[in-house]
Design brief:
It is built from eleven helices and five strands; from the N terminus they run ββααααααααααβββα. The protein has 324 residues and is mainly alpha-helical. It has one domain (2-322). The strands form two sheets. A three-stranded mixed sheet has the order 4-3-5. β3 (259-267) and β4 (270-278) form a beta hairpin. The protein is globular, with a radius of gyration of 21 Å. Converts cobyric acid to cobinamide by the addition of aminopropanol on the F carboxylic group. It is found in: Cell membrane. The chain crosses the membrane at residues 6-25, 59-81, 159-178, 294-315.
Length: 324
Amino acid sequence: MELAGLSFTGIVLCVIIGIALDLALGEARRLHPLVGFGTLAIWVEGKLNHAAASRLTGLLAWCIVVLPLVAVVQIIVILAIRFNPWLGAALHAVVLYFCVGLRSLHEHTAPIQAALEAGNLEDARQLTSMIVSRDNAQAEEQDISKAAVESLLENGCDAVFGAIFWFVVAGGAGAVLYRLSNTLDAMWGYRTSRFLKFGCAAARIDDGLNWIPARLTALSYAALGNTRLAWQCWRKQAPQWSSPNAGPVMSAGAGALELALGGAAIYDGVLEQRPLLGEGKPALAKDIQRAWRLVFNASLLWTGVLFLVAVAKILNALNGSAHA
């Protein structure tokens, strides 16, 4: 199978290199492409999201900011591969590196655990406010730990597995399409008066792109933790969540970790009673590391499966050649 000039084996190699680059280098501190994309998205939204904006307007805005960039990436990687296959493969891997955030998940949550374990609740609250939108002014250790664990589990799909899945399906352009769509959902996909119509397309497209990755992520969590409880929580609790993808991911992850998550949380000063997630003890500081380890091990699981499939295809090809 050829994909944008690369064989399946080449794509798998790029996945391994891309993840290795992310773990070694972390998120780019300067000139990250998503920063420029965010600026563009804000500008387009300011121009098009007016009082008469409709769902069609939001879809048009999504197309304006996403499709040209995806097309540019596709053209560049194809031209690079035609010029030099190794250069093209390296470019694919670099594109994936910019689209995944495995190490950044650890970098954003490990300091929260460290602050909690040091008894510095104020720092832990401030750090948690950087990764979740809920109010943390009065949050205690269990509230902060729960927020961090939920963020890790959900972003295991949004920041890691979704990008890998679409990279395998459609190469660097697929990963970029997913990452930009996910970013627009985070910027526009709110059910507020400002974004209810304009952001509908961004939210629905992200839901569609995440449908398969979310369920593969949930399966990965279940396979690496308490499988029975993860499946039970996924089946019973996921339908109660409004998000068709966050529900399976977080309920399966909470069950795999044997933690009780979800429930009450404060947003914009209002106490919301969210559906329950998982079953077991309340989350504590040490469970933040456990959740990160689950996401990390699931990444290794996906990479290992892809590697074994690639090896099997190579062996099958060699066996076919030997009998020719």
